[in-house]
Structures are given as C-alpha cells and as structure tokens.
Design brief:
single chain; alpha+beta; 3 helices; 33% helix; flat; binds zinc ion
Length: 95
C-alpha cells in the first residue's frame, strides 16, 4: 500500500538535495591558481587548477585541483557547499 505522506517526504528530500547541489558550485577567480595535486604529487608541475575542492587525502585538506587531480584526489562527492567549487575565470580578465 502506498503511503502518500511518505511519498511527499521523499519528494521533498530529493528536491532539497538538488537545491543544495546547485548552491555554491562555482567561484569566480581573476586567474587560475596552480594545481596543488600536480605541485605535490606529480613532480611539481605547474598546471592551471579547475577546482577548489575537498580531497580524499588524510585529514581531507582542501586544494586547488585540475580536472585530472579532481578525479584522482577528490572525494567523488561532487560540487557544492562544503564539497568543492569549480573555478570560473572572471569575464573581461585577460588570461
Ligand atoms: Zn593536477
């Protein structure tokens, strides 16, 4: 038997999660910082970062990460408040 009250609560929970996903997923920067993952784990290469995100490293430190390091070192929890933000270059700023 379907309980309408439970269905409504489930729907509300999903909507709230989706709303959270859309909150604070981007941060505007004037220039891309170097990828901390590359600096520390890939021979000190200087690669432009694409994310400022929590990592799965011990202590879950945050770092600037390129696409590859975001996949490799990230938590896999996606973006949002408390998880990570995609870096977006401010418009009108010469790269
Ligand atoms: Zn990297």
């Amino acid at each position: 038997m379907i309980n309408p009250e439970v269905d409504v609560k489930l729907f509300d929970a999903i909507t709230a999660a989706e709303a959270e996903d859309a909150t604070f997923v981007e941060v505007v920067v004037t220039e891309f910082p170097d990828c901390d993952g590359h600096l520390q784990y890939h021979g000190g290469q200087r690669v432009p970062a694409a994310y400022d995100a929590e990592t799965s490293l011990p202590g879950n430190p945050w770092g600037f990460l390129c696409e590859g390091c975001f996949v490799e070192l990230g938590t896999g929890r996606g973006l949002g408040m408390g998880r990570g933000q995609r870096l977006v270059l401010a418009s009108g700023v010469a790269s």
